[in-house]
Amino acid sequence: MKSSADPSVIPAVTVVLEGRSICQRISLEKHGNYRSLAKALRQMFIDSGDIESCCSSSLDFDLSNALPGYLIAYQDMENDLLLVGDLNWKDFVKVAKRIRILPVKPTSRKGKTENI
Questions:
Q1: What is the pLDDT of residues 84-103, one digit of tens each?
Q2: Among 86, 90, 60, 61, which residue's Cα sits nearest to residue 75?
Q3: Other C-beta atoms within 10 Å of 15: how many?
Q4: Per DSSP, what are the bridge partners of residue 29?
C-alpha cells in the first residue's frame, strides 16, 4: 500500500500577522524567490487593508519594504524563529513551517548621557 504523502510536495505554510486571530496560508512552491514572496505578502495584508500602507504601490518590493513597520520571520522545523532571507530560497522552502509577521518596535535613544 502506497503512502498518500509525497515527500516532494511541499505543504502550504501558515502566515501569522502578530495581533490577528485569523491566519493565512501560502504555498511557497508557487514562488520562485523572496521577491515574489514579498509581493504576495504585501497583497495578502496591505492590499486587503490589514496593514496601512504609507508607500507608493509602484515600488519594487523586497522583504525589507513589503510590509512597512513589520519584520518578516519564520519558524523552522525545530521551532526556531529566524529572519526570512537568511537562507537561500530552496533551503528556506524546505525548512519553513510558519511565517510570522512581527511589528517593529521603535527603539528609544533616551537614557543615560555620558559626561565627557
A1: 999 999 999 999 999 999 99
A2: 86
A3: 21
A4: none
